[in-house]
Amino acid sequence: MTNPFEDENARYLVLVNEENQHSLWPSWLDVPAGWSVAHEEDTRQGCLDHIEENWTDIRPASLIAALGGR
Amino acid sequence: MTAPTGADRRPVDLLARFARAVRTAPGRPAVRAGGTELTFAELDRRTAGLAAALHAHGIGRGDRVGVQLPRTADLVVALLAVWRAGAAYVPLDPAYPPARLALMAEDARIALLIGADGAAPPRPGVPVLGPDAAAAPRPAAEPDPRDPAYVIYTSGSTGVPKGVELTRGGVADLVAGLEERGVYRAGPSVVGWNASMSFDASVQQWARVCRGDTVVLIGDEQRADPAALAAVLDATGVTDLDLTPSHWELLRETLTGRQVRLFMGGEPVPERTWRELADGGADAVNLYGPTECTVDATVAAITGPRPHLGDPLPGVRLRLLDDGLRPVPDGVTGELYLAGPRLAHGYLHRPGLTAACFVADPDGPAGGRMYRTGDRARRGADGLLEFAGRVDRQVKVLGHRIELGEIESVLARRPEVTAAAVTVREAAPGDLRIAAYVTGPAAAGGPAVLAALRAQLPAHLVPHTLTVLDGLPLTPNGKTDYAALPAPAVAAPAAAGSGAPQGDALQERVAQEWRTVLGVASVAQTDNFLSLGGHSLAALRVVHKLRRTLDIDLQLRHLLDADDLAGFTRAVRERTQAGPVGRPALVARDRTAR
Lengths: 70, 594
What we know:
A: elongated; B: alpha/beta; GMP Synthetase, Chain A, domain 3; globular
């Protein structure tokens, strides 16, 4: 059994939700409700690179706002 | 208290519950540690003062505060005060190597350190407060359930530990869930706090002070010394104690027949231990859960013939999925995914890793996430959920979660080492040892490499054996063939030829204990205990036995600090000459996680 998130040879998407939380996502599976595509189909590493560049604070966006950027 | 159930659960924040506990019984003991006792009123006063001092240093919501303190009542004061200040704590175990502490403190970007007097901050430039610091209390900021509560570092497969950031709401949900399931009794209990604060199991114990329970710190000198532990249990009336199955092996005789509820966790309960507890009528539960889901995700009463994980706690959604994220039928092994309000925010400053592990949930609320645990499990024909191993190379040794890849990375960074492979081997049933293999010149297995491991890794990650090979065995597609690694070299090569026992009765007495505990036929005066495969529990057995039979004030550090058998024997001889000292404290550091 290969975990669907760990296949270096597979194609992936990057999903994002309303809280700006990002998720790696197997391109061959349906996108779950409440998530949209932030980065189109790419290699696993390409998707991870996109996430590292674009998601700089892993906390939920509304919490970051409430904390005033602390 | 009545707790809401289902999707509407909104557990009460633990600080609000603490305030209620203070009002209800201000004179009840809140914390007991050695000879120190703090009532709820005293703990309230001290934590309010320290929280105010933190505020005065600019600490508030969203900040992280390092806590680098030994296991005394001050530790509870510090952890609770950080929460009162609205911040999250980062446990920094004073026994960890300084390089490791610095790495964690820097990664967590701690804004302040609560440490003992004179402690040098592991992150340059951050202010240091003692646990006695105080200022005039001010009203606390209203917490958000998503406010970070603590950051726990776990072993990382790429060679760097990763910080998991958990939330205040997650901890409140954990406590409420354990109450709803009856794992915590309704009335005030007396909780033995056994786990190191570096492990998330500790949260499940110390935070119980917020619901009015008395927390008894099990000190390093007590947790591994059965007689000392029995004395603490007797003196304090502990009703609840957490421990790993490995720790049970040491404490079996002390705990059997006691009216103490045992919280087993940290590693799978072996079948023989399960049956022993079940058949003996012990009041014991098995708790399973990754750090990333706030300590415990499932609970099972330890009854019946075989180990299982039980059912998810309230607030946890558990799914067994296949490689297409479809639920697997009963009897089929799948990977365990967890969802619900207890999920961590993720891994600090590791967005890629976070997005690969905390993933979109196809079957939960819109926009929800689930955590893939890497644990495999299946539902048996009788409906019981059984653990079925890992999908990766993470292992549990004495309750510690270990990524073998992290140890390999440290080895591979050494100039002497060409290639490295690390695995675990079962030296005896249930006795797992970390075995490291390296290729390169003889120096690859030498003292400099061992010293580097000890300087960079906490003790539970340091391999028990280090073996130099001509080459690593490979699978047909060129990857390391871990199954084909040979049995580790047990004796250090330098020991050859010097192994003949010689000298006096004491020397032979000490050597005999090593042979018995390590299960080896012979030991040399130049042998190192750890290099022979000795681990912390084995070391405790040796020290405990010699203390008892020789009636001397021998401590664990005498064994762990000794370079070799000769050095340890010298220490034993010195203690013998010092004479018996009643029942001294055994200053032991049990490496068991909880």
